[in-house]
Amino acid sequence: MSVGTTGPADTDEPDSARGRRGFPRLLPPLLMLLVVGVGAALPLIRNHIFYLWDDTAAAGLPNWLQMAESVTKGRIPLLELEMWRGGNFAAEGVGGMWNPVVVAVAIGTYYIDNMAIAITFAKTFFMMVMAGGTYLLARGYAVRPTVAATLGAALPLAGYSLFVDGTAWVNALILTAFTPWLWWTARRVLHNGGSLVWVVVAGYLCCSLGNPYGLLSTGFVFLGVMVEAWVSGKRPKIVGLVLSGAAVLMMNVLVYLPLLLTSHVGYRAGSKTYNDEFLAPTLTDFMGMSTPSFQPYIVNFNVPYLTVPVMYLAWFVLPLLPWLRWRVLRERWRSLSGIYLFGAIYLLLMLGPSQVWMFRWPLRLIDFMWFAVGLLFAVMATEGLVRTHWRRRAIGSLGIIFVGAYLAWSDVPAQAHRHALSALVVVVLVAALIRFDVISRLGYGVFALGTLLVLALQVTWFPGWYNVNNYQFPNSRALIEERFAKYDGLTVQIADLYKVPPGSLLPDKAYQDMLWGNLYSVAGVESTTAYSGIGYTKLDEKLCAQYEGSTTCPDAWNRLFRTVPGYDGATFADLINARTVVVQNALTNTSNWTAPAGWHRSVEDEDSGLTTVWKRTDPPRFPDGRLSHVPDCVTIDSDAKTDRIDEKVRFTRDNADGEAKLTFARLNWPGYTATVNGTEVPVGTGFAGLVEVPLPKGTTSGEIELKWTPPGFTAGIAGYIAGGTLTLGLAIVPWLLRRRRPRTADAPTDIDTSSFADLDRTPEPVGTTNSAEGGVRP
Predict the structure, then answer these.
(1) Whether 132 contacts 33, CB under 8 Å
(2) Coil/strand/helix, residue 214
(3) What H or E segment, with its residue span, contains residue 681?
(4) How many CB atoms within 10 Å of residue 592?
(5) Where residue 304 falls among pLDDT bands split at 50, 70, 90?
(6) CB 224 within 8 A of CB 338
(7) What's the CA gap between 473 and 463, in Å, rounded?
(8) Do 443 and 329 contact (CB within 8 A), yes or no?
(9) Is 248 helix (H, G, I), strand (E, B) or coil?
């Protein structure tokens, strides 16, 4: 070892002995999980609904609840008719309903009434999953346990991971959590003879969330590991990786094919590639990755700058760069080639157009970029700090911290005191790390406590992501169910979230009468108001519906009660079997209007003073089914649903010569089939996208059977079976080969073994270490 450095000592001492003299083997990862748990709890001090925010509150958790309720009742929630535009779970891949870990977590938290507490437990669990996978992945690159644990704690608590995915976009958080596990299992196959089955399992967990970004990350991980196999001389292993990737892909046809075959009816149709700089960072923004107070000016929601530190990775990464052994990146380029490729791809995507087909908002990719940055940092840091020319290195660190603070000030100069304090804290922490070294016990303590200290400052400054919606729904599911039991049948809400008066978007004000997102499903109320990632264009246009369920046009009331041509005088409200209409006074004040024919105002249900509630007077015509309009020449003998989705209608017809169509109060999602007396007939799309079934000429009576299965479902099941069979083969064939010939170890590579310095070794402090040139520094 060169004089003047603190790299790992050359030793043949076994790991077990080093573990006894240093940290116990499990202590670093256990402390890592403790840091993540404490860090995840810190935001709750100022904001108890930190994790029940934006899309998590409006869609993520409500969909989990619906999914858990369905599974506990023994069914798969493919299509929830009562949720209308938001009910096609099969097409949206909602919340990871094909992912066994997500389903288990959803069921495990289902019985907790307080939604804020339930989602906090769930998100904390997945943050720990991310930490554990990152730790194992780093250890696979021969990173010291303490440094690997430091990286494992830093990534879940990084700015974007915690303040964006953690608070609002739970699906993305889970995807990020599973990604390092896939990477780790794939590299174990390459270097340690690991089973390909675990690669398939991890890859499936990444992709089966229904999030297309999971396909990207999975594909790039496979690509990176295969490139590493090629340059490391382990090319035969590529075949197994290709086969396991094929198995993952086949098993996920079931998840994504319904989306592709359904998207044309919603606003995802015709997705294009374009650039408007929305949520698109620049290279300069990456200079803030170690500045806790940095709020970059990136085009986003509502205000021109981010209200949370989205570009923050960890306080120690950039300031320690002058002290690291950069030669390691050159010496180990073969084993690190996958990281280089993975990071380069994500950097290019982050600097690319703001939307490429269905993939939009490049900032969403930053957590994957941090895997590459963090791993390269950890690989260098595990070699210890270089202490030669320490004054120059110290000046370099101070310069990096100053540049970060300056960029933070230049974007948000009004918070100069924050930027100064964050810079000071980072200086002190980095100085302590340099003093004690990153590979010592005390260095690990500085890492852990420094991460929590910085996070404590951040959650004080940034209590929530205020660029997006803070719905502030009631936390109690029981309260929501009790409060909205007053609404009968299909409830149409004509209300705009953004027209709620200031200070009224509270549980005891607006949420006495109105809900947005998928909260009506939590209340057990059928409603056209729902959050949807794909929407249903024909219905959305009639109601001026936005993604989260808001109705934005005052004319929606008139559209609802206007006679629809071609339907024998029926109104839109009749065609969808509406029984309750809730109108926001700030959007359209109908309180003094004459009630439509067959309707009356229900003053006793207007608890907030912000709405006018109307209810249908007559009982439903077909209470057991969803038939909504029948021509005069047709008599309905019975109409009833045969299960949660399918329906059967018996009819007689006076005149069988003319055309006749039956209309159902259900959206014509792709996948419907209908038969009349056993003969298949085409399912048509009527007004606002409703299902219509024609009666064939000459048919005077009979039975209609209406059924729905997700489009591509058969192909998806076949793909699932094929992928499962291939996975079984990947397990059996290697086992058979091992039985037929003696097991031989793979040729070692530069990452198979690594000599670690004693973890309890105390490095020489700055100011006394011998320099490479000789002599002692004063």
Answers:
(1) yes
(2) helix
(3) strand 679-681
(4) 7
(5) confident
(6) yes
(7) 17
(8) no
(9) helix
d(C-alpha 439, C-alpha 167), whole Å: 33
For residue 480, which amino acid is it?
I
Instruction: Give the Cα-Cα-Cα angle 695, 697, 702 (nearest 5 degrees).
Output: 50
- The sign of the torsion formed by the CA atoms of 70, 75, 76, 79 equals negative
Query: CA 446, CA 619: separation in Å to the nearest integer?
Result: 69
Distances (CA, A) of 499 to 311, 503, 504, 584, 778: 32, 11, 10, 9, 68
Q: Is 21 exposed, middle or buried (0-12, 13-18, 19+ CB in 10 A)?
A: exposed
Looking at the DSSP bridge assignments, the partners of residue 694 are 661
DSSP three-state, residue 685: strand
| The token pair that represents 157 in the structure block | 């608590």
Q: How far apart are CA 82 and CA 87, in angstroms?
A: 7
Pairing state of beta strands 672-676 and 701-708? antiparallel
Residue pair 276/299 in contact (Cβ under 8 Å)? The answer is: yes
Q: What is the pLDDT of residues 561-574, one digit of tens each?
A: 999 999 999 999 99
Q: How far apart are CA 536 and CA 262, in angstroms?
A: 10
Q: Are 519 and 490 in contact (CB under 8 A)?
A: no
Alpha helices in 111-169 (DSSP H): 115-140, 145-154, 159-160
Chain-centre distance for alpha carbon 138: 23
Each residue's pLDDT tens digit, 469-491: 999 999 999 999 999 999 999 99
| Closest among 316, 455, 283, 326 to 397, alpha carbons compared | 316
Fill in the amino acid letter for 139. R
| C-alpha–C-alpha distance, residues 105 and 209, integer Å | 13
pLDDT of 23 reads: 56
Residue 66: the pLDDT is: 95
Two tokens at 754?
A: 């690594």
Q: Within 10 A of 361 (CB to CB), how many other CB atoms are there? A: 12
Q: Is the pLDDT of residue 263 over 80?
A: yes
Whether the CB-CB separation of 495 and 485 falls below 8 Å is answered with no
pTM over 0.85: yes
What per-residue confidence (pLDDT) applies to 44? 97
Q: Kindly tell me the burial class for residue 496, based on how many C-beta atoms sit within 10 Å of its own C-beta (0-12, 13-18, 19 or more).
A: buried
Nearest to 515 by CA among 538, 481, 544: 481
Element (H, E) at 31: helix 27-41
Rounded-to-integer distance, Cα 99 and Cα 237, Å: 28
Q: In the numeric block, which tokens belong to residue 606?
A: 């207007």
- Please say if the pLDDT value at position 278 is more than 60: yes
Lateral strand order in the sheet of 599-601: 490-494, 578-584, 611-616, 599-601
pLDDT in tens, 438-473: 998 899 999 999 999 999 999 999 999 999 999 999
Lowest-pLDDT choice from 154-158, 502-506, 670-674: 502-506
Segment 277-287 shows an average pLDDT of: 93
The whole-angstrom separation of Cα 287 and Cα 714 is 49
What CA–CA distance (Å, rounded) separates 358 from 91?
14
User: For residue 68, which of 473, 477, 471 has the smallest C-alpha distance?
Assistant: 477
Say if residues 224 and 179 touch (Cβ distance below 8 Å): no
Number of H helices, E strands in the chain: 26, 15
Contact residues for 136 (Cβ-Cβ < 8 A; gap 6+) = 148, 180, 181, 184
How would you list the strands of the sheet with 701-708, edge to edge?
634-641, 647-653, 701-708, 672-676, 679-681
247 burial level (CB within 10 Å; 0-12, 13-18, 19+): buried
DSSP 774: S
Instruction: Specify the pairing of strand 690-694 against strand 701-708.
Output: unpaired
State how far the Cα of 573 lies from the Cα of 623, in Å rounded to an integer: 16
Tokens 């930027």 — which residue?
419
Which among 458, 471, 333 is positioned nearest to 52, based on CA atoms?
Answer: 471
Residue 727's closest CA among 93, 203, 193? Answer: 203
